[in-house]
Amino acid sequence: MEGYTDVVVIGGGPAGMMAAIKAAQNEASVTLLEKNPLCGRKLAITGKGRCNITNTKSWQEFSNHIHPKSNFLKSSFWGFSNKDAIAFFEEHGLETVLTQGDRVFPKSMKAFDVVDTFVAVMHKYNVDVRTDCELLTITKAPEGGYTCIYVQTTTSSRLVSCMINSKSVVIATGGLAYPSTGSTGKGYELAQSFGHTITECFPSLTALIPKFYSSDFYDIELKNVGLSLFVDKDLVQTDMGDLTFTEGGIEGSLGYRLSRKAVKALKNGTSVELVLDLKPAIDLETLKNRVKREIEKFDWGSNLVNDARMKKLLRKFMPSELINPFVDSNDNLNSHNLAERLKDWRFPIKDYVGYRRAVVTAGGVDLGEIVSKSMQSKLSPGLFFAGEVLDIDGDTGGYNLQTAYSTGAMAGVSAAKYVHNKL
Fold first, then answer.
1. In this predicted model, what pLDDT tens digit does every residue of 127-138 receive, in sequence order?
2. What is the largest CA-CA distance in the chain?
């Protein structure tokens, strides 16, 4: 089975679908190859199935949440910004809502509606979407352009060997995170076959596992707390927000934001510690006075605050389900050091949860080998990259999806220009 198309897009995630749409809108014939039976499998589970589409922050604020080199994204962002993303979805019938933290969701709060919108737009612009396609190789064709060899699983579960030629290829295969959705790192292998360097990959936006942890912590959610990250006893990051204790470890938007640097340090064999501040809105002296007043209200006289009384006192300062874990993990807790412990609860970190639950992959195709104003390879003209396969990732809160749209749009437009000899 053979054929020709102007642009082949490898990968049916948000970056790949956006690249396909933008190339088609710029008068290129486009074929998208996706290994899963449907496009957008990982997209359909993002945001706990609600899909945080993007974030409305200005570039100046937005860029602070992009790693490791936000400036690489700047041209793509301005080519297809967060405002453009919202307009894209609204224009194609998907209503959106703005929530806390400048985050944008589909009004339906259903990630599948986002996937359906992408698929409908690809159909509108005649993108040839081929699913159940496992790409094997991409090679340069003797007559110019590229040849993609892949196998496709038919409805009768038969594997058919296929080949398609094109003038341009966009690699948008994602990374290694959530392998259950089909992420295998194939894009890195393809990039290396054209001489590209892959910077070290590691899971980001993932759970951090404390050394001393038990099931008593599971499913406890904390709002508006402070969290600091210490690497080799040096403070490297501090932030405020919402945190969740899960069976995996310390997660939630706050935990995720600190996980990138924590994972990198752990991989390097460096000691990592998280310090939780349960009362970040008030200083230590104010909190000490509040503890004193609460003790006086109980009219315990000069008696010491024993274990039973300590747990009763703690109800004034934290959710009841957190009391036992707090007491158990704070040795020698008493009325004199309670305020300090409330603002300085220490969690030495022993490990992290790998790609199976990580939201995104850090690392990837070396940005120094990609033209930021086109997403084109500096090593192989007509080859473009977009999305998570690149060495660029963001914090939780819509930043990674917006990065996928922006780089995908840039790659798609540029691939079409290349086909028409305008790049």
1. 999 999 999 999
2. 92
